[in-house]
Each structure stands twice: as structure tokens, then as C-alpha cells.
Amino acid sequence: MRKAGWLILGLLAGCAQAPPRANPDAEDAIRASRELKTLELEFSAVTVSTTAPDCGRAKTLSQSICELTDRICNIAARHPEDATTDGLCKDARPRCEHAREQTQRRCGVVR
Known about the structure:
This protein is mainly α and 111 residues long. Helices cover 77% and strands 0% of the residues. The chain is built from 4 helices and no strands. Helix 2 (26-48) packs antiparallel against helix 3, helix 2 runs parallel beside helix 4 (83-107) and helix 3 packs antiparallel against helix 4.
């Protein structure tokens, strides 16, 4: 009975371990997506005002948004089986494009 108890305990301990994540970079992509959305809100505040926008800040934010987009999409490309990172990339691309277009329209800054 003692050996059976140890065997059961060993099996339970083995089952308690979390399975490895299919995409270890997914958390980085999720953090980058959150950061991108935060920067996007700041970007909107800088460019939407009725007064002259802070074009230096708008350019910096636009570049940061697009750099985060690249980071997210590079992760997604390394893990094509991961629907989460693929979705984050698909969400980020138009955000980058919008930031570039708004910077161009409001500030005349070409990247």
C-alpha cells in the first residue's frame, strides 16, 4: 500500500504542472499591444486638438506605435500557429497606418 501511495502522489504532482505554452513570446506581444493602445490614446490627444498639434510629440508617438506594431507582427510571424498574436498583429497594422497618416495630415511629417 505504501508504494501505491507514492505512485499516486507522484502522478498527482506530475499532473499539477502547467503545460508549456505553445508560444512563449505571446505575453510580450500582449504587453506590446497594451502599450501601443496607451500610446495611441496619447497620440490622439496630441493630434486631435483644435489648436496646432505638438508635431514633435506626434512624430515620436507615431514612430513608437509603428515600432510596437513591428514587434508584435514579428512575434506573430515567428509563431504562425498562434491565433492570439496573429490577431494582435492584424489589429496593430491599421493603428500604425492611422498614426502615420494623421501625422502627415496634421504636421506634414513624412516618414
